[in-house]
Input
Amino acid sequence: MVCVIGQDFDLIYYSGSERASVGNKPSCWKYVQHDANKTMRPGQLYMMYFDPGFKTIRFVKKAGSAVLYTGTVSVSEFGASDDKDANWNGIANPKTYYASLSLSAGSATYAQVLNNGSLDDYFGNSENPVYKTISLGESSFSVGKPLFIQPTQATTIIVDKSENATITPASAPRRVRVKNLPKGIAAVYCLAIAGEDQPEADNLFVQVAEDEKADRYTIGQDLVKGGVASGRAQVWVNRYDAKLSVNTQALSENEATYPLTIQIPSNGEYTLSIGAVENEEYALYLTRNGEAIWNLSDGAYTGAFEKGTTSEYGLRVSARAPQITTGIDEAVVDAKGETRKVLINNTVYIIRGENVYSVDGQLVK
Output
């Protein structure tokens, strides 16, 4: 229960059932009106509006209720005509420290948080708040940070004390371990965009599945971006008539492609980078107008971008050609612009496009 000493206030909560009915609209925030004291449930995401001049807020345990700082949070299913709006839950960390999340197998992999960890973006001058997508298995759950999650099923989240309990989660892309990949997913890449004036990166996760599947939005493997606002560098995939911060594609002839939109707040240099991925059977390329211009698996791309929104860029996941250990004439080379070193008869060669070079730059084949 909540009491404010000497002041009036309004309390609103995020309603996943409302989103399932009407889509992602402001009306998903509902007023708590069922009692005069505005009872709060542990783990539920709330926002408060105060009259000017308020000074004190007090949280009081309601008689017969669970302890406020419980170690579990329940998330629910909400059926919708469009899967992009089904099962969304707004939750908050019920602990007093940074925590990690443990979910039942297959229930959810990603979530979204307000980008700077506070509500400043939500009530700022932007038309929409700015959200950042995080991997639940790699990121801490900060105290007071709103978190939006779309599970595949109703489940219970266990909130445990994080190993980095006093450290703010890093904004850089995180390592994705092969053993942690969702069922049917062969590789995951976390793409981050950041500029000199905006080191806080916006994250985009692209996943590749080896098995063929229907080309449709799938809960747990795709995720709609929470909000796009002016004034921040952001990146997303355009697909299923939506802006996606997570997108999964099946391989077709050893490739998967992702059409990007990149939003740039001001002219300048911006960097696109990915976290280390232990599955080296695939490589992630940055494309422009359909042509590969950079192998992101070998390092970050930094370029000059103009203010505005561009859809010229894309991503391409390609299966890497195998390492060559036989003779030059049997070398299998990648014709998509990849540069890599190979070992042939105990000698190192460099492959660029369809050509093989010695380490001193002489054309061999």
Remarks:
- Helices lie at 16-22.
- The longest helix spans residues 16-22.
